[in-house]
Specification:
- The complex is a heterodimer of chains A (about 110) and B (about 110).
- Chain A is globular and about 40 Å long.
- Chain A contains no helices and eleven strands.
- Chain A is an all-beta fold and about 110 residues long.
- Helices cover about 0% and strands about 50% of the residues of chain A.
- The termini of chain A are far apart.
- Chain A has strands at about 5, 10-15, 20-25, 30-40, 40-50, 55, 65, 75-80, 85-95, 105, 110-114.
- The relative contact order of chain B is 0.35.
- The chains are: A mainly beta (about 110), B mainly beta (about 110).
- The interface of A and B includes residues 31, 88 and 90 of A.
Chain lengths: ~110, ~110
Amino acid sequence: EAQVTQNPRYLITVTGKKLTVTCSQNMNHEYMSWYRQDPGLGLRQIYYSMNVEVTDKGDVPEGYKVSRKEKRNFPLILESPSPNQTSLYFCASSSTRDGQETQYFGPGTRLLVL
Amino acid sequence: SQQGEEDPQALSIQEGENATMNCSYKTSINNLQWYRQNSGRGLVHLILIRSNEREKHSGRLRVTLDTSKKSSSLLITASRAADTASYFCATESGGYNKLIFGAGTRLAVHP
């Protein structure tokens, strides 16, 4: 089954404690992206990757890091989480081929930073 | 930065009625996509319309695009309680898959 998986699904942590949210897709997609969703603001892009070893900042990259060492994985790293990073996070992937731009979303990771 | 803005923010209708949601955006686009989100879950792609298309259908969904007005509408006909969800429009421009989402319309369909 084609899917995007994220782990963990729920996480409570404290300010300053480094954490990683994993994202994996099994569709051989080139493009992967991280979004955060906050009430009234829709989804905002944090980082994206066009392919292995190619990453770039989205609209709200401050406080986040990513890496793309393998095509299927795109982890999101919070080196020193702060309460304003409490949010619902989504990973997404898509092909970069014309006509296949549909993005497939993971189930989400709900993060609470105390 | 938010590109798409949905209108209305919330919509409450009875089963069987049609639901219309609108989306406006600010810059030129390659395509516009509509997604659905059940409460707290991942987004599911509904339909994509390209900048050179004016109307597209998929089952009970009808999407229109007016690039001169920089607006799109999503019509769900004969709505069902299971259509209750949030609906987001997202625009893609620049040719590298980056989507910019609006804040969404919350649709409630009552039996």
